[in-house]
Amino acid sequence: MKIRYFLSETVNNLRRNALMAVAATSTVAISLLLLGGVEILGMVVGNVTNSWEAKVEISTFLRDDASSGEIQALETEVAQMPEVKDVTYVSKAQAYEEFKETYADTPQLYEALSPDSLPASLRIALTDAQYTQEVAARIQGAAGVDEVRFGGEIIRRLLQVNTLLRTVTLVLSVILMVASAALIANTIRLGIYARREEIGIMKLVGATNWFIRIPFMLEGLVAALLGALLAAGIVWFADALLFTRLAQAVPFLAPAFNFSNRELMTVVAALVAVGTGVGLVGSGMATRRFLQV
Amino acid sequence: MIEAISLEKDYRMGSRALHDVSIELTKGEFVFIVGPSGSGKSTFLKLITKEEEPTGGELHVAGKNLATLPRWRVPFLRRNVGCVFQDFKLLPNKTVFENVAFALQVIGKNRSIIARQVPQILELVGLGEKLSRYPDELSGGEQQRVSIARAFVNRPLILLADEPTGNLDPATSIGIMRLLDRINRTGTTVVMATHDHAVVDSMRRRVIELEDGCVVRDQTHGIYGVGT
Fold first, then answer.
1. pTM above 0.90, yes or no
2. Is A291 on the interface with B (CB under 8 A)?
3. What pLDDT was estimated at residue A53?
4. For chain B, which end, N or C, has fewer CB atoms within 10 Å of the first or last residue's CB respectively?
5. Pairwise CB contact (< 8 Å): A205 & B49
6. Nearest residue on chain B to A197, judged by CA atoms?
7. ipTM for the predicted complex
8. Burial class of residue B30 in the structure, from the number of CB atoms within 10 Å of its CB (0-12 exposed, 13-18 middle, 19+ buried)
């Protein structure tokens, strides 16, 4: 009885203010889409850096005059560092072999080189790419070391760009969320105004405050939830139609655009949760300020 | 049933609505509150439903001290206090039945209770044949009967009527007074604010006269005005 009453009141209110409800719903959807975009961007960057980070290593080129004792000592020292996962010694001959393999298509490149022209090196794999600079600096001055090289710079830039993009989009999204809460509040205010006589009688005959409030709260919640579902649906379709095809068409992008269902569900759940929050805030504001029960 | 002790009510800007009002109304009483416009009649009724807060004194309604009654209990107080107004306050887009049913619906009564009690009460007020009419299809007297039915359908302990005959002609007013009298006979305390001389004089019930917010007369079997 009560539930049926609340639901029919909610539907009636939404229908009466259809235009405002559509405005509120679509603002919620847009703000949540931005939020979803931020999340997906984060996932793409995460995928990219993960696959690159796995390949990040520090190449420590050794001086030609380094004694084998010096090389031994350095290798032992580096292997003991807690950030280091693995150290491999690459001799001059091995380096030449690798070079030959890498440029197997263009023999003129390695034919010009003598087998001992490439320096021997230590290849250091790290537990986490974030220690790259630190470890590199420590090795730099050691005896027998000629030059230290690492590829972490690109990753750092990428993460910086990602942080900036995320911040900007998040700020935009929050602004839009405030706007959607206000639009929801206004939708409800119109509903309250249209029904002020009924509300007056409800108070008169002793309807409880929550009884009067609930249909309006539900109205805001439904508007927000519709927006959230719209945004979640768009994200889902974008994954199914756009990202999957993109990954197929451009294979080297595949790892970046490949999300597990669990990741996707997390994004969708987050959108619905935030949407619900926005709806509650909007309807809470409206019923508190305009219902005066 | 209603006990006021040195009740005071000042509105902002220093205007005084009630001053040192001490009244005791017992269960089943029928009381007229009379006096010119602005003498504090409506304010007194609004204090009883806790629509307004007194600025001094004490007020007990149906065994509850209103000063200490928490806000969330106010709706439950109002279920014991039915209200009737000069302008009926009916919902124009609802039928007679729906208007009365609405009062039960919004306090969470279930469908079967509504289906039983609403026709019963409308029969009592003499509108048993007009359940599906809309308020604007009814005469003023009939509309007031609907409003009384709505106030009484939940069987409140107290019925407050603020100028219920103010918009009605004398003949129709008599019918409304008969109805209020009948409700009173069921044991309901009826408090009616009015400045309708004929109505008060014909009933010969307790009369409390207010003037500038003060009680100037409290008579057991009174008429509207002494010597007027």
1. no
2. no
3. 62
4. C
5. no
6. B91
7. 0.87
8. buried
